[in-house]
Amino acid sequence: MAAVSMDESDLDVIIIGAGVGGLYAIHKLRQQGLKIRAYEAGDGVGGTWFWNRYPGCRCDVESMEYSYSFDDDLQQEWKWPERYGTQPEILRYINHVAERFDLLRDVQLSTRIKTARFDSKTNLWTITTEQGEAVSAPYCIMATGNLSTPRFPQIEGIDDFEGEKYHTGLWPKEGVDFSGKIVGVIGTGSSGVQSIPLIAKQAKHLYVFQRTANFSLPARNAPLDPEKERKHKEEYVERRKAAYSTPFGIAGYPPPDKRAAEAEAEERRANYEAKWAEGGSISFLFAYKDLLLNKEANDTASDFVREKIRATVKDPITAELLCPNDHPIGTKRLILDTDYYETYNRDNVTLVDIRSNPIEQFTATGLQLTDGSAYDVDAISFATGFDAMTGAMRDIDINTDQGNNIRDKWEDGPRSYLGIMVAGFPNMFMITGPQSPGVKSQMIMACEWHVDFAANAIAHMRKNGLSRMEPEVSAENGWVTHNNEVADSTLYPLANSWYMGANIPGKPRIFMPYVGGVEAYTNKCNDVVANGYEGFSLA
Ligand code: NA7
After folding, report:
1. Whether the CB of 211 sits within 6 Å of ligand 1
2. Does any ligand 1 atom lie closer than 6 A to the CB of residue 187?
3. Fewer beta carbons within 10 Å, N or C terminal of the chain?
4. Which residues face 429 on adjacent strands?
5. Does residue 168 have its Cβ closer than 6 Å to ligand 1?
């Protein structure tokens, strides 16, 4: 039987998750004089950057952008060593922020939330932890993350494998030494592509088991140019503001004004070459304005990258297998790598095609494919991804005394208003929830936006003596329809991506992020607020 802990009984806000979003929520809500408590499953803060410690883990947004904007002294004083932040560096930064703003005193670590229930008579959320503790508060913030529920493949015999078994999203803190070992990596999304070159350098032999080839561009990581850093810092405040008027929430990339067909083949090639040399995904996807809208336009960019793969990988069969052919470039998360394709020129790396010859089963010593061939390995790294965007919330039994349950509500795919709240679940705010631009934008900025929205809404309710806020069903339906229409006007739904829920067997295929762009989204949110929280019912 769960006991309500008395010292927590006067809480105003419960926050679930102490990653980038949860930590900022503590800071923001505390400034409003609210009593808050955050619950975090990990034994440290940082969310994604706490768990994903695999070799090569690095952010694919440049470090000067991928940071908090809420405090100018913080952004002026922090020094990022490289163009793209590594996992240890980003985690160091997050811990610095937690200490600097004294956030840890409101975080309960090593505490996984099992249930969250809203009672309409008391207007209170009560959460219970796996340890059996129960805590109540009028508001609940789900800062549970989009890529926080790692998934192992459902393949026969997976528990029979007696060697070392790792998941990139649950990597051991102490690291792993693959020296002298035969290693298998399953999965070639960002986590696989980032870790493969480093594991290859250490392992005796590396087998990469690839089901689907993905597009990857060179990151061109390098030490941060001091002059670039100085200039960026000088313009920080304006750049952060300008980011809200861009599609991906990142300033400094002028939007393209040409369609791909408006350029001659030679001009296009030169353009793609320049972007390839510059590194990074936004610049590349901004080569032409219809790359994500028009298949022929997209083919020109996809073909260019396939040519680069063929030119890099010496063995033509391996090169061909590495050429993505089932989705337009950019419709899955575009990967940034360092020496990924070059790694296949090493003698100790073998690419195994498990599309034409799937894994049949795991054995005590390795894995066996459908044609009977067997691979003995000392260790397997599962780079097999996450139950993205909805997995973490569905893992918690979120329900109300009115009979609503998030698992039932989202059975055919997530439904929300603005990716912030869900009809039937009053006073529950999501940080970068499904149907918001979250994962299609600069995530730290997206977290700040959602926390600010929730904090302002709570302040509005308290000021006006209101105790309950939730979306009207019609507003939610309208937003879901709009979200789907916007996605359907692009090439995104053509890919079997985690954006679509396609990586989890049985998960409904609905395009989950809002892809109308950050500018359109934040304008919509501002209008909603200016019109007295239009589409929300406040009681
Ligand atoms: P992703 O991008 O979901 O990649 C997972 C990879 O694992 C992908 O290549 C999958 O192939 C493969 N996979 C998944 N299940 C299986 C099974 N059952 N058998 C074989 N291969 C499988 O996850 P990441 O961790 O790399 O990246 C997630 C995000 O984190 C990334 O987009 C960045 O935003 C940061 P498939 O394509 O499904 O055929």
Report:
1. yes
2. yes
3. N
4. 141
5. yes
Q: Decide: 437 and 515 in contact? Cβ < 8 Å.
A: yes
Q: Which two tokens stand for residue 19?
A: 């990653």
> Atom 19 (ligand 1): residue with closest C-alpha?
153
pTM listed for this prediction: 0.97
Q: Is 258 in the pocket of ligand 1 (CB under 6 A)?
A: no
- Identify the three-state secondary structure at position 376: strand
Nearest CA residue ID for atom 35, ligand 1 = 190
Strands 113-119 and 374-376: unpaired
Per-10-residue mean pLDDT of the chain, 539 residues long, equals 49 98 98 98 98 98 98 98 98 98 98 98 98 98 98 96 98 98 98 98 98 98 97 97 96 93 98 97 96 98 98 98 98 97 98 98 98 98 98 98 98 98 98 97 98 98 98 98 98 96 94 97 98 98
Question: In this structure, are residues 126 and 119 in contact, taking their beta carbons and an 8 Å threshold?
Answer: yes
pLDDT of residue 137: 98
As a whole number of angstroms, the distance between CA 205 and CA 179 comes to 9
Q: Which two tokens stand for residue 174?
A: 């102490």
Please tell me if the CB atom of residue 353 comes closer than 6 angstroms to any atom of ligand 1: no
- The closest of 394, 526, 448, 328 to 66, measured between CA atoms, is 448
Tell me if 334 CB under 6 Å of ligand 1: no
Residue 355 CA: nearest ligand 1 atom is: 39
- Name the residue among 124, 27, 42 with its Cα closest to residue 392: 42
pLDDT of residue 485: 98
* pLDDT score for 428: 99
Query: What residue owns the CA closest to ligand 1's atom 2?
Result: 189
Ligand 1 atom index nearest CA of 385: 23
Q: For ligand 1, what atom is nearest to the CA of residue 384?
A: 7
Beta bridge partners of residue 399, listed in sequence order:
117, 405
Helix (H) or strand (E) run with residue 520 in it: helix 518-530
Are 395 and 151 spatial neighbours (Cβ–Cβ below 8 Å)? no
Q: Tell me, using a 6 A CB cutoff, whether residue 343 lines ligand 1.
A: no
What is the β-pairing status of strands 374-376 and 164-167? Answer: unpaired
Instruction: Choose among 333, 65, 53, 80: nearest CA to 217.
Output: 333
Q: In a 3-state reduction of DSSP, which class is residue 400? A: strand
Compute, in angstroms, the gap from residue 189 CA to the centroid of ligand 1.
5
